[in-house]
Automatic annotation (TrEMBL):
Gene3D superfamilies: Cytochrome c-like domain (1.10.760.10). Keywords: Heme, Iron, Membrane, Metal-binding, Transmembrane, Transmembrane helix. The gene is cycG. This is Diheme cytochrome c-type. PROSITE patterns: CYTC, TAT. It comes from the Bacteria. The chain crosses the membrane at residues 21-39. Residues 55-163, 204-310 form the Cytochrome c domain. It comes from Roseicyclus marinus. One of its GO terms (molecular function) is electron transfer activity.
Length: 314
């Protein structure tokens, strides 16, 4: 017998009409999408953050060599003054595709001659192009974001005097889904750091070496292993890594693996010869050409920093 005064709805509780439920799901989906777009948006350094910075091109040349710009952006095999022509074209294989270094010479069309200083710093420290697109992290903005902006101002001043090149940039060879640039914003959320990997108290020489290695020279990009998404594994900092080319491994630079003295490391960074009279090969040849342009004190500082690293795997 049906109980008086109670409808079937009252017995089972209120129901939500299907149309309202779908509207709710759509609104929730849009909210999630909007939040995702917000947190993965390309970041920009405003002009106001750079006010008062004046660059010194002489100091900027040292930054140029320390930052290794020619190692990637000069033509393959470039020698001498030709290393100042940043026409791009070198290819870098990875698990995500092959990245091709672009023309970053001051050419107004083929290069970055139309950029201003804020565009330059935004690219180097946020990985964002003047068009508001993410750069791929094959470009080591993850390290350059730790650079002092005065150094970047000096570098920009030096850049103005570099020779322009009209060689066009080539497209990266990256397939789906890695070709979705917005996804780099998610990668940035997981991997961008605003502190040095090596913490703790360092003396002035060691701190200078840390700055050179971690911020400018971005040595960890090759000498530190990566996780499945391509981010640096900070728990194995400078502990060696597979060679992205697929040939061999890149050696560890931790003191338990690299047992050379501070003086021997500094000498190797100057002339490329190891203590047992072997010589540098591969991409390291270009790196040493850069390091040889720095003051001896900087090479000694890099060596001192390497001696402070924890053993590989600890």
């Amino acid at each position: 017998m049906k109980e008086k005064g109670r409808s079937p709805e009252a017995a089972t509780g209120p129901t939500i009409p299907m149309r309202s439920f779908l509207t709710y799901l759509a609104a929730l989906g849009l909210a999630v999408l909007a939040a995702g777009l917000l947190v993965t948006r390309p970041e920009v350094v405003p002009d106001s953050a750079l006010a008062g910075l004046a660059g010194d091109p002489v100091a900027g040349e040292a930054v140029f060599w320390a930052a290794g710009c020619a190692s990637c952006h000069a033509a393959e095999g470039a020698q001498g003054e030709d290393r100042l022509i940043l026409s791009g074209g070198q290819r870098f294989a990875s698990d995500f595709g092959t990245f091709v270094a672009p023309n970053i010479s001051p050419h107004p069309d083929a290069g970055i001659g139309e950029w201003d200083f804020a565009d330059f710093v935004t690219a180097l420290q946020e990985g964002t192009s003047p068009e508001g697109r993410h750069y791929y992290p094959a470009f080591p903005y993850t390290a350059y974001r730790l650079a002092e902006r005065q150094d970047l101002a000096d570098l920009w001043a030096f850049w103005q005097g570099l020779p322009p090149s009209e060689v066009p940039s080539l497209a990266h060879e990256v397939g789906f889904p890695f070709s979705i640039r917005r996804a780099v914003g998610v990668w940035n959320l997981l991997n961008l750091q605003d502190d040095f990997a090596l913490a703790g108290d360092l003396d002035a020489e060691e701190a200078r070496g840390r700055y050179l290695v971690e911020a400018l020279a971005h040595c960890a990009e090759c000498h530190t292993p990566r996780d499945a998404l391509g981010g640096l594994d900070r728990s194995a900092w400078m502990a060696g890594a597979p060679n992205p080319s697929g040939s061999g491994t890149i050696p560890a630079l931790t003191p338990d693996r690299l047992t050379w003295s501070v003086g021997e490391i500094a000498a190797y960074l100057n002339d490329g010869f190891t203590p047992d009279f072997d010589s540098a090969g591969g991409h390291m040849v270009s790196v040493i050409r850069n390091m040889a342009m720095l003051p001896e004190a900087d090479r000694l500082a890099i060596a001192a920093y390497l001696k402070t690293l924890p053993p590989a795997g600890e």
